[in-house]
Amino acid sequence: MAKPIIGIPAERRLVGDSYRHTVNQGEVAAIIKAGGIPVLIPTRELALASNYSRLIDGLLLPGGPDVAPRFFGEEPLPEMAEADDRLDATEIELIKLAVAAGKPMLGICRGAQVVNIALGGDIYQDIAKQIDHQTYQHHQKAPYNQGSHYVDIAEGSMLQTIFQGQQHVLVNSYHHQAVRKLAPQLKLTAKAGDGVAEAVESKDSRLILAVQWHPELMYKEQVDEFAIFENFIERVKEA
């Protein structure tokens, strides 16, 4: 297979006086280094999602703003941060189209949450508010290319293979929402010591891997974090 085309939905941001579609450089650079060709997908026109889906071989769901709770049947709590329902709707549609077409996916942070929502699960709008015990500092104050807390990886998972058998891994953390009820076709394959979900995978295939941390900010120093992107490109080539 030639270098696979990897679609990355771009969020809309106001820069100066103009709105721009943006994706962080980390995801773009990691995909290129792993052997893929990143293509940014504008997220203002839901009707075009199927057109974009046909162009790509795999889908990377990046970090970004909070997910609007109406997409999982709730009203917003006061702790909710900025959300963009056009971004949410476009990503959810792209995920459903990718599943239907058997196109592999990698989710990062928000990406893990929106994958779970698209497939029938839900999330905590704010883990500090909605989890009834003390949680870790999930929005770390350390530099984002450094690990902040450990996650425990499930035995026999794709993630354990990526991390060469390790089951206790130091990761960074930059979120206040997290997967709550799992979608039926996903399984939990990593969690923090406080119980917060840190990774999900497809139950019966290698179609989906999504992590709550940010490997795109760690891969230059951490070989195992780069292996997440290498695994993604391998899965795309195999599909």
TrEMBL record:
Keyword ATP-binding: no
GO terms of biological process kind: polyamine catabolic process
Keywords carried by this UniProt record: Glutamine amidotransferase, Transferase
SUPFAM superfamilies: Class I glutamine amidotransferase-like
Protein name: Glutamine amidotransferase
Pfam families: Peptidase_C26
A GO term for molecular function: gamma-glutamyl-gamma-aminobutyrate hydrolase activity
Stored Gene3D superfamilies: 3.40.50.880
GO cellular component terms, semicolon-separated: cytosol
Classification via CDD domains: GATase1_2 (cd01745)
Source organism, top-level taxon: Bacteria
Keyword flag Amino-acid biosynthesis: no
Native source species: Secundilactobacillus pentosiphilus
